[in-house]
Amino acid sequence: MKALLLVDIQNGFCPGGNLPVPEGDKVVPVANRLIDSGKYDLIVASQDWHPPGHGSFASAHPGAAPFEMGQLAGKPQMMWPDHCIQGTLDAELHPELKSEEIDLIQQKGENPHIDSYSAFRDNDRDASTGLSDFLEDQGVTDLDVCGLATDYCVKFSALDALDMMPGVRVRFIEDASRGITPGGVAAAIEEMRTHGIAIIDSAKVLAS
């Protein structure tokens, strides 16, 4: 059972959004080709879904500025611009993404007191979203991960998939993903590779 996890391909992380990833919209046609390929038995997506005033927003901390380090729940936290607020256009999946083909949309980041980069659990590694249970119940043996952003939500999702679903083969699709900084992307890819996650491109999936 092969599954594709599309991480946070939302308006907020694409050009024109509140927290745009450089060239974030370029992942959409690649993701659509993967969706249409027939190579996957199951397609799931994660969706950042923050309540207004979420603790990861710089605006929730007087004197804080976006993209500086602060604290949340007693741990270091990057302060972000307000983004992907529940029910807003910013939080919607990209309009050109073939979302009608997605079997499950897993929302995350709903707890205002802790951030959730991973599609599988909060950053404190305590509260699970339930995605790993769903995938295991479906009998998933292989999981390909891609989306936005490589150096944050994609990386943490891939690593958590590996940790929370022992025996499942996890691969990262590089050309179906974009990151915030080149250095962050390089470090994230190396970290995933070190943990045994295969680094591939969409051509390998389509040719298999």
Break the fold down into its secondary structure elements and pairings.
Layout: E1 2-7, H1 27-36, E2 42-48, E3 69-72, E4 75-78, E5 104-108, H2 131-137, E6 142-147, H3 150-164, E7 169-173, H4 182-194, E8 198-200, H5 202-207
Helix pairs in contact: 3-4
Task: Please give a handful of descriptors for the protein shown.
two-stranded antiparallel ribbon, six-stranded parallel beta sheet, 208 residues, globular
How would you characterize the overall build of this protein?
It comes from Rhizobium sophorae. Residues 3-203 form the Isochorismatase-like domain. This is Nicotinamidase. With 208 residues, the protein is an alpha/beta fold. The chain has a single domain, classed as Isochorismatase-like (Rossmann fold, 3-Layer(aba) Sandwich), CATH 3.40.50.850. The protein has five helices and eight strands, in the order E-H-E-E-E-E-H-E-H-E-H-E-H. A six-stranded parallel sheet has the order 5-2-1-6-7-8, sandwiched between helices. Strand 7, helix 4 (182-194) and strand 8 (198-200) form a beta-alpha-beta unit. Helix 3 runs parallel beside helix 4 (182-194). The relative contact order is 0.20. The mean pLDDT is 97.
